[in-house]
């Protein structure tokens, strides 16, 4: 083997090793916070807690379907919401994902508030109905520490059993996740 070929092989090996180390470092640096929706900090009606064997841990939160339900609704009947206190392990940009089950096209979204936002984000509005599935939300810039996230009534018939905040912008969940309880604050039982 010629000296030039050896140098080329060494250079290629070094580049491949650096790329591998960078990829592992990027993967290790990403954070994923997984919360079961039934482990809330507080809940305000008309948001409700319910049971379903197919939901994470067997439970979920929902805005129950109100009658009449459909296109003639004038908007939320109340400020029902569910509040969580979650810990961001590092400063960064975190993508929100929710494991949801929508009733129909008039029951497929929540309002989401992060910390003290005055204007909520609309979360949902996809066209998959009557099945648990992952729904992408917006990305939030969070500092390391505790943050409040609130899912609020926007449309009746919306259900949530898990949500994820991940700093890996390429991560796409495909099944229910294992909860990370160390990143969740729950008030003591009374």
Mean pLDDT: 87
Largest sheet: 6 strands, antiparallel
Count of β-strands: 12
Indicate the multimeric state.
single chain
CATH topology of the largest domain: Jelly Rolls
What fraction, in percent, of the residue positions are helical?
10-25%
The CATH architecture of the largest domain can be given as: Sandwich
Based on CA inertia axes, which overall geometry fits?
A: globular
Question: In CATH, what is the class of the largest domain?
Answer: Mainly Beta
Point out poorly predicted stretches.
Answer: 15-28
Q: Could you tell me the radius of gyration in angstroms?
A: 21 Å
> What is the beta-strand fraction?
35-45%
N to C succession of SSEs: HEEEEEEEEEEEE
Instruction: Give the helix/strand class.
Output: mainly beta
Distance between the termini: 76 Å
Tally of alpha and pi helices: 1
The CATH fourth-level homologous superfamily of the largest domain: Galactose-binding domain-like
> What is the total domain count?
2
Explain this structure to me?
The protein has 190 residues and is mainly β. It has 2 domains: 1-30; 31-185, Jelly Rolls, CATH 2.60.120.260. 14% of the residues lie in helices and 39% in strands. The chain is globular.
Topology:
Layout: H1 3-29, E1 32-36, E2 42-44, E3 48-51, E4 59-62, E5 81-88, E6 92-102, E7 109-114, E8 121-124, E9 133-142, E10 145-153, E11 158-166, E12 184-185
Antiparallel strand pairs: 1-11, 2-5, 3-4, 4-11, 5-10, 5-12, 6-9, 6-11, 7-8, 7-10
Provide the descriptors you would attach to this structure in a database record.
2 domains; 39% strand; 1 helix; single chain; mainly beta; Jelly Rolls; 6-stranded antiparallel β-sheet; 190 residues
């Amino acid at each position: 083997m010629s000296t030039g070929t050896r140098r080329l092989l060494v250079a290629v090996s070094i580049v491949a090793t650096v790329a591998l180390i960078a990829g592992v470092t990027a993967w290790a640096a990403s954070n994923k916070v997984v919360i079961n929706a039934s482990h809330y900090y507080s809940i305000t009606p008309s948001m409700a807690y319910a049971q379903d064997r197919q939901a994470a841990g067997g439970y979920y939160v929902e805005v129950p379907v109100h009658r009449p339900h459909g296109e003639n609704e004038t908007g939320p009947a109340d400020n029902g919401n569910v509040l969580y206190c979650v810990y961001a392990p590092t400063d960064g940009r975190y993508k929100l994902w929710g494991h949801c089950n929508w009733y129909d096209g008039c029951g497929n979204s929540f309002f989401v508030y992060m910390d003290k936002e005055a204007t909520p984000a609309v979360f949902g509005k996809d066209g998959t109905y009557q099945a648990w599935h992952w729904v992408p939300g917006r990305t939030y810039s969070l500092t390391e520490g505790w943050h409040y996230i609130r899912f609020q009534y926007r449309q009746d018939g919306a259900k949530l059993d898990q949500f994820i905040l991940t700093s890996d912008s390429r991560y796409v969940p495909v099944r229910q996740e294992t909860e990370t309880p160390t990143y969740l604050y729950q008030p003591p039982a009374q």
